[in-house]
Specification:
By secondary structure, the chain is α+β, with helices and mostly antiparallel strands. Helix content is about 20%, strand content about 25%. It contains four helices and nine strands; from the N terminus they run αβααβββαβββββ. It has helices at about 20-30, 45-50, 60-65, 95-100, and strands spanning about 35-40, 70, 80, 85-90, 105-115, 120, 120-125, 135-140, 140-145. The strands form four sheets. Strands 1-4-5 form a three-stranded antiparallel sheet. β2 and β3 form a beta hairpin.
């Protein structure tokens, strides 16, 4: 798979609105890598667009989305700017899971978290600007964002 800058049109969204496996599974299987990113409120529109539009239907979906694309050092996997965290995984092939369930198992080989929301090994969303809160898809065009922090009486 060519993950070079002139082939960034292969950014794929999590499959909340469209059939997934037939299009995206071959991309992951061919490249041997996949990425997971945690998008934020700041890029909710770009996230929704990329997750709901197929490159097969709209050839210039990246340009139309307004998303800014970059790569992490050592990897040519396109990522969307504005996420709270990124993880790149090397595919551990498991044919049955991939074919039957579109389930991929991977070894995390690179990870990055934005220091505005992650410090000293902990998420600190409650201290950050709300636009950096992660979003979580519900249905239709409805999302939740990470909410208020709570502490228990038990300390570890």
């Amino acid at each position: 798979m060519d993950w070079s800058a002139d082939n960034i049109s292969r950014v794929i969204g999590i499959p909340w609105l469209q059939p997934w496996g037939a299009v995206k599974r071959p991309l992951i299987e061919k490249s041997g890598y996949f990425a997971i990113a945690l998008p934020t409120i700041e890029i909710i529109e770009e996230t929704m667009y990329l997750g709901s539009v197929s490159k097969n239907d709209i050839k210039d979906k990246i340009e139309r989305s307004g998303a800014k694309i970059f790569t992490l050092d050592g990897f040519d996997i396109p990522l969307m700017k504005g996420c709270a965290a990124y993880m790149i995984f090397k595919l551990i092939p498991e044919e049955h899971n991939q074919q039957a369930y579109d389930l991929f198992i991977g070894e995390c080989v690179k990870a990055y978290a934005d220091e505005r929301v992650f410090k000293d090994g902990h998420w600190i969303f409650e201290q950050a600007d709300p636009k950096f809160s992660t979003i979580h898809y519900v249905a239709g065009n409805h999302f939740y964002s990470i909410g208020k922090a709570y502490d228990t009486k038990i300390s570890i």
